[in-house]
């Protein structure tokens, strides 16, 4: 192959001897040697450029030129990084970051308050239930004691109906009453005394005490504090308990009376009681012309309440042990 008057061989570079000119453009195709500056590594030139423009205010550092702070390593470093990111998020989006935990806190607080209230209500209900149970137990014990009063009164009523003559009954009454009191007061003092009141007048009392004589002869129907209860007893024709009230003896207690009616009697029957004994009982109540039943009088039992009122009654021990108080 030939060109420009020379023969070319494969593998031999062709070096033009003279510059070529193409339409007025000068092209120098001769090989150039790189200077020492050009032969320096690229990194060196870059470092030099950076040093050259380090103090140039017009030179703007790109992100890759900005020195990044050293990040801490390990679990502590990760924790600090997460905390910084969280604080940055709270600062940038406070509503989004704070609202969910605030709502969660309010929900948990409401649930806690509701649990405390429910627990307090349950505790109060349980305490009230235990108190009511203890009070009912005491009431049942007191009711049982009160019912023990009925036995002596019913016994006296039967004896009087069989033998209504008062003079003979008066002679036997102390021994009969003593036996009845002994049978009732074995555990505690339930009845402090028994009375017979024919025609409504207190005529016999057992046991006797310092004020027994002062109470003999009192007409129950004429005593303002006693008349109402006495008439109610006659109308009911059954045992009626009045009280608690202050007794003539000076202490507090209850009065249980049973009205006694004698069959086949006349309107003027006295059964040996003095004719001058005041009755002051309405005829419609004290004598039934149809059945010919005549009101004989009362058998009365007086029960003490001083120990109960003072809180010394043994039936209150259970309430005391549980720390309950009463009025």
Q: Which helices and strands appear, and what pairs or packs with what?
A:
Layout: E1 2-3, E2 6-7, E3 20-22, E4 25-27, H1 36-39, H2 42-52, H3 74-92, H4 94-147, H5 150-162, H6 166-184, E5 193-198, E6 204-206, H7 212-215, H8 224-236, E7 240-246, E8 252-262, H9 283-286, E9 287-288, E10 293-304, H10 306-310, H11 317-321
Antiparallel strand pairs: 1-2, 3-4, 5-6, 5-10, 7-8, 8-10, 9-10
Helix pairs in contact: 3-4
Enzyme class: hydrolase
GO molecular function, one term: 3',5'-cyclic-nucleotide phosphodiesterase activity
EC number: 3.1.4.17
Task: Supply database-style keywords.
327 residues, alpha+beta, Beta-Lactamase, 2 domains, six-stranded antiparallel beta sheet, two-stranded antiparallel ribbon, 11 helices, 10 strands, rod-shaped, disordered N terminus, EC 3.1.4.17, membrane, 3',5'-cyclic-nucleotide phosphodiesterase, transmembrane, transmembrane helix
Stretches with pLDDT under 50, minimum 5 residues? 1-27, 43-47, 49-53
Query: Over all CA atoms, what is the radius of gyration?
Result: 60 Å
**What percent of the residues sit in helical stretches (DSSP H or I)?**
40-55%
CATH topology of the largest domain: Beta-Lactamase
Whole-number count of domains: 2
Shape: rod-shaped
Percentage beta strand: 15-25%
Major sheet: 6 strands, antiparallel
The CATH class assignment of the largest domain is Alpha Beta
Task: Describe the fold and architecture.
The structure is a single chain. Residues 1-27, 43-47 and 49-53 have low confidence and may be disordered. The chain is of the alpha+beta class. Helix 3 crosses helix 4 (94-147). It has helices at residues 36-39, 42-52, 74-92, 94-147, 150-162, 166-184, 212-215, 224-236, 283-286, 306-310, 317-321; strands at 2-3, 6-7, 20-22, 25-27, 193-198, 204-206, 240-246, 252-262, 287-288, 293-304. Strands 5, 6, 7, 8, 9 and 10 form a six-stranded antiparallel beta sheet that branches. The protein has a two-stranded antiparallel sheet with strand order 1-2. The chain has two domains: 72-147, no CATH class; 151-321, 2-Layer Sandwich (Beta-Lactamase). It is rod-shaped, with a radius of gyration of 60 Å. A hairpin with a 4-residue loop joins strand 9 (287-288) and strand 10. The chain has eleven helices and ten strands. 46% of the residues lie in helices and 16% in strands. Residues 32-51 are annotated as: Disordered. Residues 34-43 have a biased composition (Basic and acidic residues).
């Amino acid at each position: 192959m030939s060109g420009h008057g020379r023969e070319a061989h494969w593998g031999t570079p062709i070096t033009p001897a003279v510059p070529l000119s193409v339409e007025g453009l000068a092209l120098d195709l001769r090989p150039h040697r790189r200077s020492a500056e050009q032969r320096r590594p690229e990194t060196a030139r870059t470092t030099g450029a950076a040093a050259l423009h380090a103090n140039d205010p017009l030179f703007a550092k790109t992100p890759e030129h900005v020195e990044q702070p050293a990040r801490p390593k390990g679990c502590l470093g990760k924790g600090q990084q997460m905390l910084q990111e969280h604080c940055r998020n709270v600062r940038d989006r406070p509503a989004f970051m704070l609202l969910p935990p605030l709502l969660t806190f309010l929900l948990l607080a409401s649930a806690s308050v509701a649990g405390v209230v429910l627990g307090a209500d349950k505790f109060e209900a349980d305490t009230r239930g235990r108190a009511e149970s203890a009070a009912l137990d005491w009431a049942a014990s007191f009711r049982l004691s009160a019912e023990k009063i009925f036995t002596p009164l019913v016994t006296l009523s039967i004896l009087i109906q069989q033998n209504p003559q008062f003079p003979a009954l008066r002679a036997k009454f102390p021994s009969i009453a003593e036996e009845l009191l002994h049978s009732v007061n074995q555990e505690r003092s339930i009845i402090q005394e028994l009375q017979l009141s024919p025609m409504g007048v207190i005529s016999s009392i057992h046991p006797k005490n310092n004020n027994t004589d002062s109470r003999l002869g009192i007409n129950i129907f004429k005593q303002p504090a006693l008349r109402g209860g006495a008439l109610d007893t006659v109308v009911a024709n059954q045992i009626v308990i009045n009280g608690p009230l202050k007794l003539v003896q000076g202490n507090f207690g209850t009065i249980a009376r049973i009205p006694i009616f004698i069959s086949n009697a006349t309107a003027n029957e006295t059964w040996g009681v003095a004719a001058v004994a005041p009755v002051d009982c309405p005829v419609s109540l004290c004598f039934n012309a149809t059945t010919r039943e005549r009101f004989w009088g009362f058998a009365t039992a007086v029960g003490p309440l001083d120990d109960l009122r003072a809180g010394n009654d043994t039936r209150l021990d259970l309430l005391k042990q549980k720390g309950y108080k009463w009025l």
